[in-house]
């Protein structure tokens, strides 16, 4: 009779000697649709193992000093604990509660099995109280000039009509399901003890009301027939194909799938794999011809290895988790990265981002699927060139080449690729395995490179020497000590290999590595050469400050080193640029040094203490930036409301939030609720 209402509750009872009769239930409530139960049980505060001071402290943290109806612990002592349920098994059709009486076994099917665990929501309440007290304390300490204006600008947006696809995604989302579960009302229950008369009455329903076997025709069977009825063979489960796990692969379960599904799941998880490794995972006896036929449906050949297709990773009607870009755009971007690796072992992330116009997170995901980052070089394809496969299967290689030609034609139309993107770079020996090179080996390789190119450098040096002799005008430049401080290249974007080789090609920031070649720098440089150097340096400084507006000398030198790395060998800027020349050029381009009053205990280097800012950019925000820079010449850090008040006072107009944000974005960064000039924040 109780098969619709019979549940099993499992929860811990402490101490272990305590029985069910000793538990004091204070209240209970249930959400019927979710089969979610909360039980509130008393804690024995008189037990010698109970820490009274700790109980008082928890009650004080949760409820504070005042006691009212909303208090969790009205006795100002943690004297109760809440248990919240979760389903222990999704399918309980084969479980039953059994009662044995007078030689009869009475079975009642279970409706659910719930495990109750301690709920710690009172800690969330304590945290909320703590945050309220902190907010009240901060609000009381703030001065009048830090108070925000009462009038605030608001933005009104009109929602677009929701499409059917968007509605389905919203209904299936985790937030929507959580909201629906939270909307279901609790039904409060009355708890009856074990020895209560109502409990005794309900417990009688556990016994079958029928008398004799006449009504139970199911029991008039042979033992084998009854066992077959009790545990029927699951025919549907035997015919159903096992569902592939979402993130963890069981090889035993995987091998029960069709070959095409096995290959698809393996490639989707591994993403890049040599054909030999794939055959070893599929088990002995697998036909390689069938595998080759299936692998071409879900993967493309790149440098002799198989890379999973983009449309397998990004199915139709999906989008990027980072930017929300639809799957079609993601597939095109990833195909471009795969195609670049068919041309070269190295790819530069900035080049991919510039062509595909995708966000950095999406581009990084593409590259991490099939390559590894190498400092100062770029992203290298993660597997060595598989010569064995290419030699054994030339027909497959030719077919894949034709497919890549078609993809290249499509990419040319979509991205309007330039000739430099289509021309493959000179590849290194493709069969070479990626090696970890020590620092000493790098130095030896650099020396060997210098010796290898010595002949070419000597010719260029003699040519430059001849030009110096024939020059009528000359400018003395003592560059024996000139050197722009080298900063480590940012890990965020490694430079291309060719750029690093250009810097190591016998020159370091324009200074020759050979001792006998320093005469050209310590001597006279042609006047035309100096003019070209000044023009190039001025163009770099001007374009940099128009983008950044505020820079420390340290950051400017780092950007200049990156700029040098992108230049071809023999460029005029390699003639040597000193710190003084760089600073003089900054002042000549209309910038000013901002004397920021750094704190006395600052650990910043001298180059980080020199701050330069573009004084006039020629736009409508020049006056606002100048007021802001004057403010930072008197203060190391400033609050936003002070900045807004000063701008309104000096510029004679009330600036809206967007205008203030624009000026702050040009010159400042926010940290800990305060605003600093760019590059001046000290950890």
TrEMBL record:
Positions of the UniProt region annotated as Disordered: 127-150, 463-494
Domain DNA-directed RNA polymerase III subunit RPC5 C-terminal per the UniProt entry, residue ranges: 425-683
GO cellular component assignments: RNA polymerase III complex
One Pfam entry name: RPC5_C
Basic and acidic residues bias: start-end ranges: 127-136, 478-488
GO terms under biological process: tRNA transcription by RNA polymerase III
Name used for this protein in its record: RPC5 polymerase
Species of provenance: Ramphastos sulfuratus
Phylogenetic placement of the source organism: Eukaryota, Metazoa, Chordata, Craniata, Vertebrata
Gene label: Polr3e
């Amino acid at each position: 009779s109780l098969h619709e209402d019979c549940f099993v509750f499992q929860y811990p009872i402490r101490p272990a000697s305590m029985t069910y009769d000793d538990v004091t239930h204070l209240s209970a409530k249930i959400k019927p649709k979710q089969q979610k139960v909360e039980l509130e049980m008393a804690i024995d505060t008189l037990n010698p193992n109970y820490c009274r001071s700790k109980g008082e402290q928890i009650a004080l943290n949760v409820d504070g000093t005042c006691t009212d109806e909303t208090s969790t612990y009205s006795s100002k002592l943690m004297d109760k604990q809440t248990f919240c349920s979760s389903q222990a098994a999704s399918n309980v059709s084969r479980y039953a509660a059994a009662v044995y009486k007078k030689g009869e076994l009475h079975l009642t099917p279970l409706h659910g099995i719930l495990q109750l665990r301690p709920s710690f929501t009172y800690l969330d309440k304590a945290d909320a109280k703590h945050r309220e007290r902190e907010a009240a304390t901060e609000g009381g300490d703030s001065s009048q000039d830090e108070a925000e204006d009462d009038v605030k600008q608001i933005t009104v947006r009109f929602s677009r009509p929701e499409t059917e696809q968007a509605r389905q995604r919203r209904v299936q989302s985790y937030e929507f399901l959580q909201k629906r579960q939270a909307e279901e009302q609790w039904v409060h229950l009355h708890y009856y003890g074990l020895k209560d008369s109502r409990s005794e009455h309900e417990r009688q329903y556990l016994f079958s009301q029928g008398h004799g076997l006449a009504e139970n025709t199911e029991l008039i069977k042979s033992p084998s027939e009854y066992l077959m009825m009790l545990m029927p063979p699951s025919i549907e489960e035997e015919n159903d194909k096992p569902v592939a796990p979402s993130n963890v692969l069981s090889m035993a379960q995987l091998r029960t799938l069709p070959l095409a599904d096995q290959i698809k799941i393996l490639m989707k998880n591994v993403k890049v794999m040599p054909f030999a490794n794939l055959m070893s995972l599929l088990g002995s006896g697998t036909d390689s011809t069938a595998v080759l036929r299936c692998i071409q449906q879900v993967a493309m050949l790149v440098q002799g290895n198989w890379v999973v297709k983009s449309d397998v990773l990004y199915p139709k009607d999906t989008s990027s988790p980072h930017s929300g870009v639809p799957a079609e755009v993601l597939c095109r971007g990833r195909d471009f990265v795969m195609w670049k690796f068919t041309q070269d072992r190295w790819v530069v992330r900035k080049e991919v981002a510039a062509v595909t116009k995708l966000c950095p997170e999406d581009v990084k995901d593409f590259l991490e699927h099939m390559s590894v980052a190498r400092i100062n070089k770029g992203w290298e394809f993660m597997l060595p060139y598989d010569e064995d496969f290419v030699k054994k299967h030339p027909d497959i290689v030719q077919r894949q080449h034709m497919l890549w030609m078609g993809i290249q034609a499509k990419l040319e139309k979509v991205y309007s690729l330039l000739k430099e993107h289509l021309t493959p770079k000179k590849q290194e020996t493709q069969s070479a395995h990626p090696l970890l090179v020590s620092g000493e080996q790098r130095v030896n390789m650099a020396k060997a490179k210098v010796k290898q190119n010595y002949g070419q450098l000597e010719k260029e040096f003699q040519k430059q020497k001849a030009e110096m002799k024939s020059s009528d005008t000359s400018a003395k430049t003592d560059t024996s000590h000139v050197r722009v401080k080298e900063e480590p290249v940012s890990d965020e974007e490694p430079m291309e290999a060719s750029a690093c080789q250009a810097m190591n090609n016998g020159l370091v920031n324009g200074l020759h590595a050979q001792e006998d070649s320093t005469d050209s720098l310590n001597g006279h440089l042609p006047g035309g050469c100096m003019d070209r150097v000044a023009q190039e340096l001025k163009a770099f400084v001007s374009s940099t400050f128009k983008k950044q507006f505020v820079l420390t000398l340290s950051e400017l030198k780092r950007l200049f080193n990156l700029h040098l790395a992108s230049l071809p060998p023999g460029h005029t800027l390699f003639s040597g640029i000193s710190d003084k020349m760089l600073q003089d050029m900054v002042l000549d381009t209309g910038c000013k040094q901002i004397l920021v009053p750094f704190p006395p205990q600052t650990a910043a280097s001298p180059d980080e203490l020199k701050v330069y800012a573009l004084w006039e950019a020629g736009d409508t925000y020049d006056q606002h930036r100048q007021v802001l820079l004057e403010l930072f010449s008197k203060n190391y850090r400033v609050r936003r409301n002070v900045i807004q008040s000063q701008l309104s006072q000096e510029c004679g107009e009330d600036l809206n939030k967007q205008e203030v944000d624009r000026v702050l974005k040009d010159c400042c960064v926010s940290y800990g609720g305060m605003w600093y000039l760019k590059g001046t924040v000290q950890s």
